[in-house]
Design a protein that fits this description.
Layout lengths: L6 H13 L2 H8 L3 H15 L4 E4 L2 E4 L1 H26 L4 E7 L1 H8 L3 H7 L3 E7 L13 E5 L8 E5 L3 E6 L2 H4 L16 E4 L6 H7 L12 E2 L2 H9 L4 E5 L4 H5 L12 E3 L2 E6 L6 H27 L7
Parallel strand pairs: 3-4, 3-5, 8-9, 8-10
Antiparallel strand pairs: 1-2, 5-12, 6-12, 7-10, 7-11
Helix pairs in contact: 1-2, 1-3, 1-4, 2-3
């Protein structure tokens, strides 16, 4: 049967072994030297071995005492390190968010500083990949999914506001040798394809049957952020989300070359476990995120209404 020893006695022994004196150990632990001596004697009785040689007023570790002191000192050092780590994280919470790469890159990351400023007690750990996270494993708190479908068992899915999907290109392309002023002008330009988007150029073409487009040509990307970047670089015209291209549009790196209402799609969803949906850190993040999305939807509506034909080059 495993021997049980007094933690208080072990603490007294560790201090005495580390400092080489019962008196110094007593000062370190704010007790009397006789209390240290008593606790060391208790530990020796519990272990059935002498830990110190007592020579007049000094103490020396026995061979067994040196072996025991080495292990105990290391253990107390680990406890001290763990205590410091916990003390540094008091009041903070880590929220692990998994997201699709394009939403993480184009929308979420530029806003994380704003979230951190509003909620300094929550640290975001962001992961990004196309595959949905398995929330049941307990590693991820929130999964932001694209075209998510019905929520898996045990999860709650809150849909984002509808995406507005519009043609976008660089100002140089829109005002170039073949200016883009109306939908029909797209027939003279390279189309950039986002291959995993819910709505693509063939969907846009069905809504604009009089426009002749070459849907077989043009660069293809499996991430929206790459298609948007290619459009910024003047590679062609992309068809993508106002939500994801907001920064580029506000910075003037992209323009919507002609008046349009855009196509509408239910793109992303916010998934959490039912059992964790009301955790303070998740609720705080959800409320902040949907507040920001609402601001974005209002901006997108105003942006489309205010869009005017581009000036001639």
């Amino acid at each position: 049967m495993r021997k049980r020893v007094s933690i208080k006695a072990v603490q007294a022994f560790e201090a005495a072994a580390r400092l080489g004196s019962f008196a110094l150990a007593a000062e370190d632990l704010a007790v009397t030297p006789s209390a240290i001596s008593h606790q060391v004697k208790v530990l020796e009785d519990q272990l059935g071995v002498r830990l110190f040689h007592r020579v007049h007023r000094s103490v020396l570790l026995t061979d067994a005492g040196r072996l025991y002191a080495a292990e105990v000192t290391e253990a107390f050092a680990r406890i001290d390190a763990a205590t410091q780590i916990v003390a540094q994280t008091v009041g903070s919470a880590v929220l692990t968010v998994h997201s699709t790469p394009s939403f993480a890159t184009q929308w979420l990351m530029p806003r994380l500083a704003r979230f951190q400023e509003l909620h300094p007690g929550i640290d975001i750990r962001l992961q990004a990949s196309v595959a949905a996270a398995d929330l049941a494993q307990g590693v991820v708190d929130v999964d932001i999914r694209y075209n998510p479908g019905p929520p898996p068992a045990g999860t709650v899915m809150v849909p984002f506001p509808e995406d507005i999907i519009v043609p976008m290109c660089s100002p140089g392309l829109a005002n170039g040798l073949k200016p883009i002023r109306r939908p029909g002008d797209l027939g003279q330009h390279t189309l950039i394809h986002s291959e995993i988007n819910i709505l693509r150029w063939n969907d846009w073409a069905r809504h604009h049957r009089r426009v002749q487009l070459d849907l077989e040509r043009g660069p293809r990307f499996d991430r929206s952020f790459m298609a948007i970047s290619a459009a910024v670089d003047g590679l062609g015209v992309c068809l993508d989300s106002l939500l994801l291209a907001e920064r580029e549009l506000l910075a003037g790196k992209l323009v919507i070359p002609f008046a349009t209402q855009g196509l509408r799609a239910q793109g992303h969803g916010f998934a959490t476990l039912k059992s964790t949906v009301d955790l303070p850190k998740i609720r705080t993040f959800r409320e902040w995120l949907f507040g920001e999305l609402e601001k974005g939807r209002d901006w997108a509506g105003r942006f489309l209404e205010a869009r005017s034909p581009l000036p001639s080059a």
